[in-house]
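Re-run requested by the PI after the first attempt was lost when the workstation crashed. Everything re-entered from the original request form. Ligand of interest: protoporphyrin IX containing FE.
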Amino acid sequence: MSMTLLLLALHILSATIWVGGMFFAHMVLRPAALPLELESRIDLWFRIFSRFFPWVWAVVFTLPLSGYGLLYVAFANPDPTPAYIRIMQWLGWTMISLFVFLFATHFRNMSKMVHKRLLPEAGIYLNRIRITVSVNLLLGLLTVIVATTGRYW
Ligand code: HEM
């Protein structure tokens, strides 16, 4: 029982940090930073990503680990699992893959351009990160709805 509580707390905190962080970045920081000049805007976003992405890296481990932990601890027979958990699981892996892809390609390229001070080029990758994060934000919100309403359908 206490293991279930611990895993569920870890799971829900991970989801909150990730989805809430993306919501804040996309819906609040982006419009607020838009009036800045290109150079300070790119530098600001680079500092933001450098602080937010380590949290996302932590979450991409704690979320599936706690999720599968819950399946084994809280569900006597994890196979077959309820539909909403299977949907959550696949949405989760899609989000994780998108993040790893974004980090390994767009963010790495953006870092290189920032260090070379090629700012318009860095802006191209910033834009790609924005698009990927907006997809992941939608998937994250959908996952939270599926995860919390699932027991009622
Ligand atoms: C990656 C694989 C994942 C697995 C295996 C997994 C598994 C689980 C399990 C077993 C539960 C407990 C369900 C219950 O007690 O009825 C749960 C709850 C939950 N999960 Fe996941 N999950 C995963 C990913 C995610 C992701 C990506 C999110 C959100 C971004 C998420 C959000 C939630 C939420 C909000 C709950 C709480 C549901 C509630 O207690 O009302 N999960 N998850």
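Saved to the shared folder this time. The chain has a mean pLDDT of 95.
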